[in-house]
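Thread: Newbie trying to understand structure tokens

Hi all, I'm a second-year student working on a class project, and my supervisor (Dr. K.) asked me to get a predicted structure for one chain before our next meeting. I've only ever worked with sequences, so writing a 3D structure as a token string is new to me. If someone could post the tokens and maybe explain what I'm looking at, I'd be very grateful. Here's the chain:
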Amino acid sequence: MSGVLPLILAAVSALPFTPPAGWVELPQSMVGARVTSVWQGPKPAHGSPPSFTAVAFPFPGTVQMLAEGENKSSATSGVVKTLSAAKLQLCGTPAYMMTRKVNAGHASAILQQEIAVKSGYAYILLYTRPAATGANTQISAMMRAFCPSGSETIPAMKLPAGWTKSSTELEVVGAWMGTRPGQIITLMRGSQMSSLDKLLSTARLRSGNGGSGKSLFKITSQRTVSMCGYPGMTVDMSVNATQVPTDMHFALTQGNGASYVLMYMQMGTAPTDPAAMASLRTLCVTRTSPAATASPMPTPSPTPTPTPTPTPSTTSSAVPGASPAPSASPASSASPSPSSSPTTVPSSNRHKLHGNRR
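---
Reply by user tm_fold:
Sure, no problem. This is what the structure looks like when written as tokens:
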């Protein structure tokens, strides 16, 4: 049963890729993060445009645990500095509001982050803007008025005029731990977007690489490829924001109204896992190519035209036991002509000829 269960789960989930052998899938409760709200503001005179992201995901801990994890992550980075941290209430739910600065030269940014946990679900609102620009008071007020729903649903939020929604939905649907420490593959799924570049931009926001921190994530390779007949892209990145070396490898594709992002992250000095890289190349919108799925519809069989009454023949009613019946002849059964009736075609002679050849 232990060998059958993974096959059943794979069939039910219809994974669009083949995980590497030996990798272990994490429980859904640990990876069910959903990014349903990603906005981008007007581009300023200098620097990248501001962005706003809202995330909801199952979380079995407390808001204090989540906030401590965020603080530890910032402390291990040599480029992130905490400017302020305060407790607040969001519709009666305890929450934290933290403001940090990412020191990255001309790409330095201010990150305003709000964290809350309610009924087993965590909520993170992230407002990112260039360090040289001031905070939008309307967004700050909107964040303070946010009410956690206690479910995976993020309440509707109204952003200032000029802000555009850059993604309808991007959801983490699975994660797999590798055979070595520091290895993880994450699968994300969303609606089909206007281009692969748009999908890559959304994936970078989802993975923590927003537009204001471009210098922290160095793209080492970017290629346009075909993935089982659909347009695709592979992207390799190195992360320079932490003390631990980290490489990120992406495979992206979309079609049939859906988009998929597969990300392989390798932390530490271990070399890239060839099996994980090969797994990225199996990403496919469907398990068959578009050419195979878009086969033409079968041509309807024509309505047989009335045939004249056949002349009575003994072969139509009685067949010698030593001879095969005319209806068993491949030639007569495959013939498309409705007039090719066994009563009008002397097929018995053909069977004898075939028999002589054998």
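A couple of things are worth pointing out once you decode it. Confidence is low (pLDDT under 50) at residues 1-13, 210-215, 288-358. The chain is about 20% helix and 35% strand. Feel free to ask follow-ups in this thread.
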